[in-house]
Design brief:
The structure holds 2 protein chains of 2 kinds.
Chain A (H helix, E strand, L loop, with lengths): L2 E14 L8 E14 L3 E5 L6 H8 L7 E6 L2 E2 L5 H10 E4 L13 H11 L8 H11 L16 H13 L5 E5 L7 H18 L2 E6 L2 H7 L2 E6 L2 E7 H6 L4 H9 L39 H5 L5 E4 L2 E3 L16
Parallel strand pairs in A: 3-8, 3-9, 6-7, 7-8
Antiparallel strand pairs in A: 1-2, 1-4, 4-5, 9-10, 10-12, 11-12
Helix pairs in contact in A: 5-6
Chain B lengths: L13 E12 L2 E13 L4 E5 L6 H8 L7 E10 L2 E2 L5 H7 L4 E4 L3 H4 L6 H13 L3 H14 L5 H4 L9 H13 L5 E5 L7 H17 L3 E6 L2 H7 L2 E6 L2 E7 H6 L4 H9 L38 H4 L5 E4 L2 E3 L5
Parallel strand pairs in B: 3-8, 3-9, 6-7, 7-8
Antiparallel strand pairs in B: 1-2, 1-4, 4-5, 9-10, 10-12, 11-12
Helix pairs in contact in B: 4-5, 5-7, 7-8
Classes of the chains: A alpha/beta, B alpha/beta.
């Protein structure tokens, strides 16, 4: 399988100014991430807020500059490229954001928003543009009349459809979708997920699907990477990860999915405590303060990433034990 | 100065009868809440479920008489311990708010005041409703923070909201809500803005506190997973009306309204990679001003009768009511 995108040892930290006498500190948002996405594949990236998953998406698009590491897109390293050099690659990689209310310009009609990328990348003649926009709107299930209306005239789900049409306008190969459905109602969420899957089949798109909801990610992804405090802690095929998690954090995330079954009421919360401050991460394995399997070893040294089955890697000393809390699952 | 509602009263703690809250907007009348009735007993948790715009939050704001203009309660009664909240003078309803009935909101960052320390904000509730001294109130505040699982509570009293994480802020909101030992807690999407792992912790905390304090809860949520795990009874709302209501077991095991079934079908099932079931179309805020069944335009099993006549709630089994011609 040829890799469309290969991320190698990616690092990004932010300088957090000190206050009340404390010194400025480096927040390691992304701390050595390796990922690959094959052509036509959907890679899910999950984790709690603050784990660095959105930063990874922005680094790929060069909206943020990486401190270290490589982002190889079809073999070309994007990291050293200038804004001008990056421009042709932006056509290949597009992004869909979480909040469809703030990601569309309220002063532009939908048609104007959609023709802007066509203009910038000189993708079609001015005369053909209306036809092209009609086609784009049709693909995302909107009426051609939508082109003359403003974003505020649409519901959240429809706006997300417009954002998707805008991303598709430049015929990209890879779409980075950062929590594309978490602001939407359940019934609309299902519509958008189905739409993304149809478009993927139709255009042979690859996706990096960033989300905190493991149930949705499991449904759309071929492979899933789980992130905790700036690092990938487990990566596997979606079914494999769901059936046989080998990192305690993945196990906890799976148990935390609220399930529409009243018989499961009263289960204890799977994790105590909150995400530790990334300014002052715990020693050893960064998950150990919240981990039910933690031993002295975990306090002392960080576990290495280990391949435990083909395509299944995990970063845990006790990965063989993981899974004992999942028995309550049907 | 503190006068709790002392009158002993048999029957449910809260009885909402035929509540109608309408919005008189420039573009026309919106029946946000259209003839909604339900009750909650002491210590019970009722979940109001539905999508954005279905009227669930406006229902809860109607209970506290906090409906924003141009909205207005136009009809109905809301009996709390036998007294009608809708006909109380403003001074009295202020005594009920935050005291007998407390509320927590979805977004803990916007519902806490960013320029006051959290200790002050909790103490204010106690000073206002209990009339105790500031020092005493701060001591109580520390105890409350301890109770909601914030460690080293007395040191945290001087923190500002921005110094806390989302989960901690929601814990502070819960501490404020509990300050006066309310008999009813209205929790409006209490965990929607939080991560799943923190969400599980907060729901667990709410359940424990409700049990310890014999507190009834009106849980407002769009998340059927959260509802299944935490409610005794469920009411599903659509276009300002309750379309199905029943005990949590019945509703999840034997959903009878096509909307309830549709919502349950939209949830991704582990291991199933096929296309998700959807409910076509979307909720229009003014759908219920038309004749007939408001759900008909989206209904997979739309019927003849629904075209002209709106269905009424019918009892299918004890406590299980459905508003559908075909159920």
């Amino acid at each position: 399988m040829s890799m469309l995108l290969e991320i190698q040892h990616l690092k990004k930290s932010f300088l957090v100014p000190g206050h009340k006498g404390s010194k400025a500190a480096h927040l390691k948002a992304v701390d050595g991430v390796d990922l690959q996405i094959a052509a036509g594949e959907t890679l899910g990236l999950v984790g709690e807020s603050g784990c660095g998953k959105s930063t990874v998406g922005k680094l790929i698009l060069q909206l943020l500059k990486a401190d270290e590491g490589q982002i190889l897109y079809r073999g070309t390293n994007l990291v050293p490229l200038s804004a001008r050099q990056m421009r042709p690659w932006r056509r290949q990689i597009q992004m869909i954001f979480q909040d469809p209310f703030s990601s569309l310009n309220p002063r532009m009609t939908v048609g104007e928003s959609l023709s802007e990328p066509l203009n910038i990348h000189q993708l079609c003649k001015a005369a053909d543009r209306p036809e092209h926009i009609r086609e784009l709107l049709h693909q995302v299930g909107l009426d051609a009349a939508a082109a003359n209306r403003y974003p505020h005239e649409f519901s959240g789900g429809q706006r997300q459809r417009i954002s998707i049409a805008r991303a598709l306008a430049v015929q990209p190969e890879l779409i980075i979708a950062d929590e594309p459905v978490s602001a939407l109602d359940l019934s609309v969420q299902a519509q958008i997920i189905n739409l993304l899957r149809d478009l993927q089949r139709h255009h042979q798109l690859s996706f990096l699907f960033i989300a905190h909801d493991l149930a949705v990610v499991e449904h759309v992804s071929d492979r899933i990477a789980v992130m905790y405090l700036g690092r990938i802690v487990e990566i596997a095929a979606a079914d494999e990860l769901y059936q046989r998690p080998h990192h305690p954090y993945t196990e906890a995330l799976l148990r935390a999915i609220p399930r529409p079954d009243p018989d499961l009421a009263g289960r204890p919360a799977p994790l105590r405590g909150e995400l530790p401050s990334p300014l002052n991460p715990p020693t050893g394995c960064t998950f150990h303060p919240r981990c039910p399997y933690a031993t002295d070893l975990c306090h002392q040294q960080p576990p290495p990433m280990e391949e435990i089955a083909p395509g299944h890697q995990t970063r845990c000393f006790h990965h063989k034990l993981v899974g004992k809390f999942l028995k309550d699952r049907k | 100065m503190y006068a709790p509602l002392q009158k002993k009263h048999d029957g449910p703690l809260l009885q909402v009868n035929r509540l109608k809250t309408y919005f008189f907007t420039r573009s026309g009348l919106v029946k946000a809440v259209d003839d909604v009735s339900f009750d909650i007993s002491v210590g019970e948790t009722l979940a109001l479920v539905g999508e954005s715009g279905c009227g669930k939050s406006i229902t809860s704001l109607s209970i506290l008489r906090l409906v924003p203009a141009p909205g207005r309660v136009v009809e109905g009664s809301i009996l709390f311990n036998g007294q009608d909240l809708l006909r109380m003078p403003p001074t009295e309803i202020r005594r009920v708010r935050g005291n007998d009935i407390a509320m927590i909101f979805q977004e803990p960052m916007t519902s806490l005041n960013p320029v006051f320390k959290i200790g002050e904000q909790i103490a204010e509730v106690l000073r206002l409703h209990r009339g105790i001294s500031n020092l005493e109130a701060l001591e109580r505040a520390a105890a409350l923070l301890e109770q909601v699982g914030i460690s080293a509570a007395s040191n945290r009293l001087r923190d500002y909201p921005h110094q806390l994480s989302g989960g901690q802020r929601q814990r502070v909101m819960i501490a404020m809500a509990l300050a006066c030992d309310p008999k009813l807690l209205i929790a409006d999407e209490p965990t929607t803005a939080l991560d799943v792992t923190i969400q599980a912790q907060i729901m667990e905390l709410l359940a424990e506190l409700a049990k310890d304090h014999q507190m009834a809860t009106l849980l407002i949520s769009h998340d059927l997973g959260v509802v299944a795990g935490n409610a005794d009874r469920v009411a599903v709302m659509y276009a300002g009306r309750i379309v199905e209501t029943g005990p949590v077991q019945t509703l999840f095991k034997n959903p009878c309204h096509p909307y309830t079934r549709g919502l349950l079908g939209c949830i991704p099932k582990p291991g199933d990679k096929g296309p998700l079931q959807t409910i076509e179309g979307q909720l229009h805020p003014q759908q219920n001003t038309a004749e007939g069944c408001p759900f008909r335009p989206r209904c997979a099993t739309a019927c003849e009768q629904g075209l002209t006549r709106p269905p009424q709630l019918r009892e299918l089994s004890p406590g299980h009511f459905v508003r559908c011609w075909k159920a």
